[in-house]
Each structure stands twice: as C-alpha cells, then as structure tokens.
Amino acid sequence: MSSPPCCSMMTTSCGLRLGPAAVVREKSVYISHTDSHKFMLRDVIWDVSDVLDVTEQLSAVP
Fold first, then answer.
1. CB 31 within 8 A of CB 39
2. For residue 39, which of 23, 52, 54 has the smallest C-alpha distance?
3. What φ, ψ does residue 19 adopt, rounded to 5°?
4. CA-closest candidate to residue 14, choices 48, 44, 56, 51
5. pTM, full prediction
6. How many CB atoms lie within 10 A of CB 39?
7. What share of the chain is helix, strand, coil (3-state, %, to 5)?
8. In terms of C-beta density within 10 A (0-12 exposed, 13-18 middle, 19 or more buried), how is residue 7 classed?
9. Which of 16, 43, 52, 62 holds its CA 20 to 30 A away from the CA of 10?
C-alpha cells in the first residue's frame, strides 16, 4: 500500500497514521554516512493537525 504523494505513512504499535510529507521532511535529519534521511517518530507528531489515524479504515478492508 502506498500513501498519496502529499502524505507519509507512519506505523506504530497502536496502528497506522498518515501525515503530511512536509512535516515528515521538516522533522527528518540527513545522515551522510548512509546518504539517507532519518525520521524519529515521537508522540508529539500526533498533535499535528493534519496527521490522520487510518487504523480503523484499513482494518475494515477485507
């Protein structure tokens, strides 16, 4: 399952959330050793207004 281009998928033990890609990019840090970006999922992200909990909708899919 892929998320829309404007969103990033975040999985937690509590379920699945979609968040604005811009927020994920803003909160990511570049790691030169691996030539990648790292996003640390912290509880504060759930306070961002555009983060959606889609666990229930995905659980309903057969």
1. no
2. 23
3. -135, 160
4. 56
5. 0.55
6. 16
7. 25, 30, 40
8. buried
9. 62
